Amino acid sequence: MRSLAGAVAIAAFVGGFAIAGWVIDLDRKVTARFEGRQFSVPSRVFSAPSILYPGLDVELVDLRGTLERLGYRQAGSTRKLPAGQYVWRPDRIRIHLRAFEHPSRPEPSRDVVLRLDRGAVDEIRLLPSGRELGAVLLEPEQLGAYYGRDHEQRELVEVDGVPRHLLDAVFAVEDQRFETHPGIDIKRIGGAMWANLRAGSIRQGGSTLTQQLAKNFFLTPERTLRRKAQEAVMALLIELRYEKPEILQAYLNEIYLGQRGSTAIHGVGEAAHLYFGKRGHDLTVAESALLAAIIQSPNGISPYREPERATRRRNLVLHLMHEQDRIDERTLREAVAEPLRLAAVTPDPGDARYFLELLRRQLPEAYDKDVLVSQGLRIYSTLDRRAQRIAATALRNGLAELERNFPALQRDDPLHALQGCLVALRPQTGELLALVGGRDYGVSQFDRCTQARRPTGSVFKPFVYIAALEPSGSGPAITLASFLDDSPLEIQTPSGPWTPENYDHKFHDSVPVREAIERSMNVATARLAWEIGIRRVIGVARRLGITSPLPPVPSLALGTAEISPLEVARAYATIASGGVRPVVQTIEDLVDAEGRTLERRRLRFERVLDVGTAYLVTSLLEGVADRGTARGVRRNGLRGPVAAKTGTTDAERDLWFVGYTPELVAVVWIGFDEPASIGVPSSVGALPIWRRFVQDLTGGEIRGAFLRPPVVQEVEIDPTSGALALAGCPERRREFFLPGTLPDVVCPGGGPVEPDGDPSNGTQQEFFDWVRRNL
Amino acid sequence: MARGPGALLALALLLPALGLGCASVFGTGPVRVSELTDDGDAPRRASMRLVERGLAADAAFQPSFALSRYERAIQVDPTNPFAYLALARHSLDGGEPERALEYLDQAEMFLQSQGQDSPRVEPHLDGLRGSALLAAGRSTEGVPLLDRARRAAPSVWGDGYLSADELR
User: In the predicted model, is pLDDT for residue A417 greater than 90?
Assistant: First the structure.
């Protein structure tokens, strides 16, 4: 007997010891989670904000689509319009803009009305004062986030920052005695057991919020006794160690509340965004009740898929709140009567994934992958959401069309399909506006705009002309009135003689500079580069921002060096911006989870080319777009200033098209990842994609003009000889010259220019120009 | 030949009218952004309003907000010279003379190519460039420019400084 008692005592001691160890182990887990970083919050990336101003075409900029993607909801009445809603009428749009929270550039919530005139904003007025506004900003759109392996998204809330009715709704339906129980609710467990016994199956759970939190934080979803026991003990430990508000806050941020595409939505903050397009603190009673209602089964009672079921359960929650004296009769009636109004579901746009990857690579090393997936940074980028969408569509449709028209280009394996990329910059600032690095990021993550280096073909030629046109010690090698030699050329190289040919396999003897570039003549350009020196051409390319290796060989002039499309874009941006090289910018600023700005970009400029030479080359490339190999840009009626250059490499393996307007430079590249002949020139393959992109972005009317800087003189010349055209010269056209480079012979006669014969007439001409422009 | 009182009266009326006319066309004193908010096409007007807002923020000692407004002005109209001019002033205020010089180059390029490099803008270009050069330790280049700005626009540049309100 005594030995039995001893055995029991020993067993009890050992058992107790084991249980104590188990509890200590659970306690260690609880404290580790609560004391450390509770949640991994993926960092989000946002686009540049949209700016609304008088004169803006609301259809062209897809204002309605932008509002929907931002989670704004259309309202029927304009009387009282809550933030985050808009009313769209044919003659006016009223938008109650949400506040934009940012440490250094916050925007207040503002109720504004946009009066329209023929589809364009006529004026913007602030309500209710009626004060006229020059411009208003919409919040930046989310482009994506850096998710961890669990692919969860959440926006953390503080328990003091959510409305009381949200807490009441959660208590009412999930745990009405949360504020008083010690972690487990015996009464609730009893009630659930009784209900389950009567039903003959598990119909009701008895878990408190603390138990649910313990389960989500530490345990698997399996329904076993052991797991339930662990859950209960952990709930008790949590309640012993932490205050109720702390536990509730953890619960509100952890709870699973649905899906946005493949992303799991956790926490009420993120759910408020998903379902209502608003912050947690702005939820109405009915919206809070809906969130509480779907906790039980976020996908089964999804307001999007099962709106009636979701509404019924929302109303049940509202009635529970009323029964438990959490809301009064009137609030109940109003909330039940509120229709289910949901924000449009806007999954992260897949078309920006190449950009997100580039941005990640460009961030300082301190922001590594672990930081990005966990620390909830907000990265405000330069990407123009609309330009990006249009670029992705233009590239996708352009490649598909090419394959339809030339079936030999089709491949069965998407990994080996015809590829392409499109990158667009704002030349004055270097801000990256759009980047599509390939056909489908899901199939291939290789970014052909930034990671691929391919021969550029004739896209390289403008660098040769810059080297020849810009002033050097003995003056420029050529002017726009010069003629180039396009006769057969043979250059001896270490690997044997090099004999370039033109695309049409013909030679043209002497050709004007403009014609040589407009028709993209190889021989004339190669000879020019050889005469001025390949190293001088390389020097120009380097100054413009080309960093890829540039072998000093004669064929470099025709684009044999392998360069990335982004480098090409930057180099052309330098020409477009008048010779000022921009730094390519992808981020505006970076804000941490606590709202502190950690990084802030500043615009940087460096003049690397004189403004006059930049203008001369732009003028040449305008000719390419108007009359030359790029004249197809005008096919669909695109109006306004365009400068462009085509590029097709040997055997048509790479098709390039670079074009710029006064405010945009865009590069399109097309080819196979493993180089193979495409069989069509750039004007057929790449140009239409560029044209579609710019046409859709601008509505067919390009703003601005390539303005001639005062340093460039405009005079009339005889196009057949390049001589200054005086009275009596039978043919004439206007041409541009740098100071001191006017032709030294005149037409008619071919004699030398008289000392006073400068027809630009110096200061007087400039004065009249100034008066003409200003008056 | 003596002139009658009618001719004198006409002259007396005509001269001020001419003066007013010239003033309305050419303006008086160094240029202010607020005078130009109705000029140009829609993006330029919106951009100028954003510059104006930025200058107001700078005047209210909200430099970060001002900076974002100037950047938005460039987003709407990347060739607006006054956005770069305001950025140059802002950078100089923030103790970044080298950056101010970069912005001034941009402003000057766009002013010239757009034919807006009028005598009313020149004091600002001279004054800002002179101040920036001075702040960058290049006084031999900076002082003459600053002096020229002082002479051309003593009411603004007399103290050798362009406040946000004076440009606004």
Answer: yes
Spatial CB neighbours of B143, under 8 Å, sequence gap ≥ 6: B130, B134
- Active-site residue set of A: 174, 458
Q: Please report, for residues A31, A96, A424, B46, B134, the alpha-carbon distance to residue A52 in angstroms, rounded to integers and kept in the order given.
A: 50, 13, 22, 9, 40
Residue A237 reports pLDDT greater than 80? yes
Tell me how far CA of residue A257 lies from CA of A7, A152, A262, in angstroms: 51, 11, 13
Instruction: Using the predicted structure, report yes or no on whether residue B26 has a pLDDT greater than 60.
Output: no
**Which amino acid type is present at position B77?**
D
A51 with B72: Cβ contact below 8 A = yes
Torsion of CA A699, A704, A705, A708, to 10 degrees: -170
End-to-end CA separation in angstroms for chain A:
118
**Residue B6 scores a pLDDT above 80:** no
Closest CA of chain A from B15, distance in Å: 21
Q: Which pLDDT score, from 0 to 100, does residue B2 have?
A: 43
Rounded CA-CA distance A204/A686 in Å is 62
Q: Quickly list H helices, A36-129.
A: 63-69
Inter-chain residue contact B106 with A55, CB threshold 8 Å: no
pLDDT, mean over chain B: 86
When CB atoms are compared, the residue of B52, B68, B115 closest to A770 is B115
CB A469 within 8 A of CB A613: yes
A244: which residues sit within 8 A by CB, 6+ positions away?
A178, A179
Do residues A302 and A371 touch, judged by C-beta distance below 8 A? no
- Can you tell me the distance from the alpha carbon of A434 to that of A734, in angstroms, rounded to the nearest whole number? 36
Categorize the per-residue pLDDT at A132 as very low, low, confident or very high, splitting at 50, 70 and 90: very high
Q: Two tokens at B36? A: 């130009």
List the structure tokens of B146: 């600053």
Contacts of A428 in chain B (CB under 8 A): 74, 78-79, 106
Element (H, E) at A87: strand A85-88
Q: What's the predicted TM-score (pTM) here? A: 0.86
Both tokens of residue A237? 């430990």
| Predicted pLDDT at B18 | 45
Predicted complex: ipTM over 0.90: no
Task: Check whether A100 has a pLDDT greater than 80.
Answer: yes
- Give the Å distances, CA to CA, from A716 to A223, A512, A627, A731, A756: 90, 15, 19, 10, 16
Residues of A with CB under 8 A from a CB of B: 48-49, 51, 53-56, 103-106, 120, 134-135, 137, 426-429, 431, 578, 580, 588, 597, 602-607, 611, 662-663, 703-704, 707-710, 769-770, 773-775
Contact at 8 Å (CB) between B71 and A588? yes
Residue type, B17: A
